[in-house]
Design brief:
GTP binding, globular, 7 helices, 7 strands, alpha/beta, metal ion binding
Length: 239
């Protein structure tokens, strides 16, 4: 019997090392979000970029881990900055992926210390955003897995469903729970969702669930399944 190690002229020990690397390697999904760059902080909808191309919004309660999720996705530790006073940053932050693809980081909601008048103002702004933003192709709704589906979260799911916008729930800080309780929470959340919505567990610190999130976003952003970073195209290249 001829050994492959003999054919390729390497020692058995070296061949075993190559085999081990091959067995432990895996194909990673295309991650175009590493190129995300800050563009603008909009206090009004009129300050947003032109309503064209594809925009995906990240939304969630203050302290749910939204900024950490964006930073983990883009592999940039300080792209989305956290406020020292949760809920005080009331603006829509736009990150460009390329000329026709954007991430919209929406203001955190549900923080009690924000003045009632300001909360009411941003509720109206967000409602108008969901109803009128034609380029909005999906919403990543970030929730702390230990406190999922609070009233404001349910309202956000309802907004997405009413506006016919796909919603993907990111149950963050999954590393804070053991696998059993985490999966149990995931199943409960999934059962409560409308057909258009999906959910997954996620941990920014452990990088758990990152590829699943990227796969979901790649579909929304209309990236080809077999694209590499150098082959990424805009939605308008086919026109």
């Amino acid at each position: 019997m001829i050994e492959w190690a003999d054919i390729i002229a390497v020692s058995p020990a070296t061949f075993q090392h190559i085999q081990a690397i091959a067995m432990n390697s895996h194909t990673t999904v295309h991650n175009p979000y590493r190129s995300a760059a800050y563009i603008i902080s909009a206090h009004k909808l009129t300050q947003l970029p032109a309503d064209e191309g594809i925009e995906v919004a990240f939304a969630g309660r203050s302290n749910a881990g939204k900024s950490s999720a964006i930073n983990a996705l883009t592999e940039q530790n300080s792209l989305a900055r956290t406020s020292k006073t949760p809920g005080r940053t009331q603006q829509i932050i736009i990150f460009n992926i390329d000329q026709q693809r954007r991430i919209a980081d929406l203001p955190g909601y549900g923080y009690a210390k924000v003045p009632a008048q300001l909360r009411a103002h941003w509720k109206k702004v967000m409602q108008r955003y969901f109803e009128t933003r034609k380029s909005l192709h999906g919403v990543v709704l970030v929730m702390d897995i230990r406190h999922p589906m609070r009233p404001f979260d349910q309202q956000m799911v309802d907004w997405c469903e009413y506006s016919q916008i796909p919603c993907h729930i990111l149950l963050t800080k999954a590393d804070k729970l053991k696998r059993g309780p985490a999966q149990s929470t995931l199943l409960k959340v999934r059962k409560s969702l409308p057909a258009r919505a999906t959910a997954q567990t996620f941990s920014a610190s452990k990088k758990q669930g990152k590829e699943q999130l990227i796969t979901r976003l790649n579909a929304w952003y209309q990236y080809e399944d077999n694209e590499t970073d150098s082959q990424a195209r805009t939605p308008y290249d086919k026109i």
